[in-house]
Amino acid sequence: MSRREEASTRVLSDQTFLEIPENVRLGFRLAGPGTRLGAYLLDLSIRSAALYAIVVVLSIALLPFAATGLPTGVYLVVAFLLEWGYGCFFETWWNGQTPGKRAFRLRVIKTEGYAIGFYEAMIRNLLRAADFVPLFYAAGFLTAMGNPRLQRIGDLVAGTMVVRERKPVLGGELEGISDYPPLPPEAFRHRYRPSEKTLEVIESLFRRRVDLAPARLDEIASILAEPLGKRLDSFTDRKFARDQPAEFLFRVLSAQSTRIENALGPEREPGEGAPRRRASPPAPSFS
Amino acid sequence: MNKQSFLKERGPSWKRFESLLARAEAPGKPRLASEEVSEFSEIFRALCYDLAQVRSRDWSSSLERYLNDLVVRGHGAFYGGKPRPRGQALRFLSTGFPRRLRENHLFFWVSLALFTVPLVASWVVVAMEPSLAHRVLPGTALYTMEEMYSQDFGEGERQDAAMAGFYVRHNTSIAFQSFALGFFLGLGTIYVLLSNGIQLGTVSGYVIAQGHGERFLGFVCGHSSFELTAIVVSGAAGLILGHAIVAPGSLSRAEALKERGRVAVELALGAAAMLFVAAMIEGFWSAQRLPLGIKSLAAVILWIVVISYLALAGRTEESS
């Protein structure tokens, strides 16, 4: 990637980069306001439910002491601890995650890429009071929007950022590709094998397949499918590429990803992936 | 080397790293054995090299993303985890917090002035002209206050524990807000200090002027030491935050915020601990029906405790 391209992608990027001592640049995917709001609302409901449960238990367990106000007192202290300490507690002990963040696969980390500790968690959660100003996190939202790492005020002071996490899966981008039986190896036997770049393009289309209307998907796919079909061997392949361009491209991709998995062969659990796929009917089949 | 042979050669090593990583990240105690740690670091460095190689050869972004994410997690696990020493909270309260406060005494004095000057001024003014109290607080609030101190406590049913709980939540929340609002150039903190000072002074002046002085002072003197000092300390924490933005010195504002924010939050936590003590005193002691003499004696002792704690605790180790 050239320097100019890099600069232009960074402007619209939802990533932030960090160079680590091992001399590689790491990309961190930042969490946007939408998912963070979702995680916040989930945490809020968990907190409220916990408080409600505690109220019920307390009012029964401490009934004999009701005259001294003990149940009310304990309730108020618990409410206080939940209000100010919930986020800090979980982010400290769950390494930057609250139950809500875990559900949305978010994690708080230091801007240097390390795990956060007690003080970072405490600072970013106490400063919610500043983020909340004047109403419903307006100050925090505006601060995050004007910040390349999407940090709210609490994150700025704590030196933290919220990132999206994905369990690293080799070839995980291609989840669902097994729905497409691979083109048989014979299709690629002769002259042509799609380049990594070409597969990359198919892959990005594959990831968007659920967002696009089928007709539009085929329309886009045909741009690549037709020249690709011509390069493959048989007449049926060509016809297939013309009639069902998206299906065709995905089968090409499927064939290539099968090869990648075969290369990794012994590490795969049996019954998963490649072996099952080989049993599927050879393409093209019009059904 | 093409991509297939690269995957074939390096893949097993990545899988091994994944399993080591899963154990390194697990929250429980037993993590990696020492030889596994060196294996981890070895594979980690190789992994960084693999990532650089995949990038330079432009081999599919899904592979790049996989390796990137693996290195990200490895980086966090390898450099992040500091051991958590036990008993830190106790050490913090016994020596760390008072020391921190003394290191930043200037902020404490400014905060003290911002709180006490309006307090004393409004007290004196309202004592001389009680009707002015209505300019500060709504009539209903003043009426409630007067009502509260016009009779002995505990004539109805006393709910000490409930009151203590209320003070914990209410006062500490205000202290945390006062700290956090310091981010806005310190203005939020200054506002909280001034307005609390004025209100407290007004109420004191008004209630005493209405002739309930003995009951009022008997109630407030006990917890005043811990509560008022903690308000000033949390104010100091907010001012530190504001100062980091207004005058970051040789650091960038972001760096100054991070560095000073750590100090400020320590003071805010210390203030919270003091407010917890204050709430217990206020809930369980202040409303007791005892002669004013005993109450003021206790108050004097508590003031001595607070002052010597903040001024002296942790000094011997400090000088060594």
Question: Can you give keywords for this protein?
Answer:
heterodimer; A: 287 residues; mainly alpha; 2 domains; two-stranded antiparallel sheet; 13 helices; 55% helix; elongated; B: 320 residues; 12 helices; 0% strand
Description of the molecule:
The complex is a heterodimer of chains A (287) and B (320). Chain A is mainly α and 287 residues long. Chain A has helices at residues 3-11, 33-61, 70-93, 99-103, 118-126, 128-132, 138-145, 153-158, 196-207, 214-231, 235-243, 245-263, 274-278, and strands at 15-19, 25-29, 106-110, 160-164. In chain A, α2 packs antiparallel against α3 and α9 crosses α12. Chain A starts with a helix and ends in a 9-residue tail after the last helix. Chain B is built from 12 helices and no strands. Chain B has 320 residues and is mainly α. Chain B starts with a helix and ends with a helix. Chain B folds into 2 domains: 3-80, no CATH class; 88-319, no CATH class. In chain B, α8 (160-180) packs antiparallel against α10, α9 (187-246) packs antiparallel against α10 and α9 (187-246) runs parallel beside α11 (292-312). Classes of the chains: A mainly alpha (287), B mainly alpha (320). Chains A and B meet through β2, α3, α5, α6 and α8 of A and α1, α2, α3, α8 and α10 of B.
Major sheet of chain B, described briefly?
none
Oligomer: heterodimer
Helix/strand-derived class of chain A?
mainly alpha
Beta-strand fraction estimate of chain B: under 5%
Total number of helices of chain A: 13
**Mean pLDDT, all residues of chain B:** 87
What is the string of SSEs of chain B from the N terminus onward?
HHHHHHHHHHHH
Overall domain count of chain B: 2
Number of strands of chain B: 0
Helicity range of the residues of chain B?
over 70%
Q: Looking at the structure, what is the overall shape of chain B?
A: elongated
- The share of residues in helices of chain A is 55-70%
Q: Low-confidence spans of chain B: pLDDT under 50, at least 5 residues?
A: none
Question: Radius of gyration of chain B in whole Å, from Cα?
Answer: 29 Å
- Which class best fits the helix and strand makeup of chain B? mainly alpha
